[in-house]
Design a protein that fits this description.
Number of helices of chain B: 0
Order of helices and strands of chain A: EEEEEEEEEEEE
Oligomer: heterodimer
Mean pLDDT of chain B: 92
Distance between the termini of chain A: 41 Å
Radius of gyration of chain A: 14 Å
Helix content of chain A: under 10%
Helix content of chain B: under 10%
Number of strands of chain B: 11
Mean pLDDT of chain A: 93
Shape of chain A: globular
Structural class of chain B: mainly beta
Chain lengths: ~120, ~110
């Protein structure tokens, strides 16, 4: 069975602070994929990144960066110099190769960035 | 143009009624899904369709019946609505039945009273 754990239910920071959202996953598959999605207050789900289990390189996209470590089964997400518009619920998700984009989601982390 | 669109955005109805939620994607994707987000914001897959064929039914009650008239549409019909069906329902699509990113609609907030 697959499982994704986001232990941080809520995080509150002040604008311009860096913040890291933790994601720990469990799977017995050797090939799997990890995702991050953002759900702003307006409610839609926005795709941020997909990473496959073969690629442990860290990724940076503007103020966003992701740290994938198979040794600790973690796929953490860091926002540098946070902004108020980053306030949202962030979901980490996992999919195995044979199940298409059927995603197993974590519980989500509510990030609030205060001015 | 909206890539994955759902209608309606809000739906309030009484227990026992039957209702439908429509979903359309204009991305040319082969695969479509329904997810349910409960009051605690937990997201769970309900159905997966590939090329109009049901691939996965995640032990959803029979009262929920998805229908895919073509690859671009996946509708969700719910019979005999119950209070516990209140949730946000998301439609999503992905390019192929492989692991590619899924793109989500804006969600339909269903409230059963």
């Amino acid at each position: 069975a697959q499982k994704v754990t986001q232990a941080q239910t809520e995080i509150s920071v002040v604008e311009k602070e860096d913040v890291t959202l933790d994601c720990v996953y469990e799977t017995r598959d050797t090939t799997y994929y990890l995702f991050w999605y953002k759900q702003p207050p307006s409610g839609e789900l926005v795709f941020l990144i997909r990473r496959n289990s073969f690629d442990e390189q860290n990724e940076i996209s503007g103020r966003y960066s992701w740290n994938f470590q198979k040794s600790t089964s973690s796929f953490n997400f860091t926002i540098t110099a946070s902004q108020v518009v980053d306030s949202a619920v962030y979901f980490c998700a996992l999919s195995k190769e044979t199940s298409g984009s059927r995603l197993t989601f974590g519980e989500g982390t509510q990030l609030t960035v205060n001015p | 143009d909206t890539a994955v669109s759902q209608t309606p955005k809000y739906l309030v109805t009484q227990m026992g009624n039957d209702k439908s939620i429509k979903c359309e994607q204009n991305l040319g994707h082969d695969t479509m899904y329904w997810y349910k987000q409960d009051s605690k914001k937990f997201l769970k897959i309900m159905f997966s369709y590939n090329n109009k064929e049901l691939i996965i039914n995640e032990t959803v009650p029979n009262r929920f019946s998805p229908k895919s008239p073509d690859k671009a549409h996946l509708n969700l019909h719910i019979n005999s609505l119950e209070l516990g069906d209140s949730a946000v329902y998301f439609c999503a699509s992905s390019q192929v039945w492989g692991v590619t990113e899924a793109f989500f609609g804006q969600g339909t907030r269903l409230t059963v009273v």
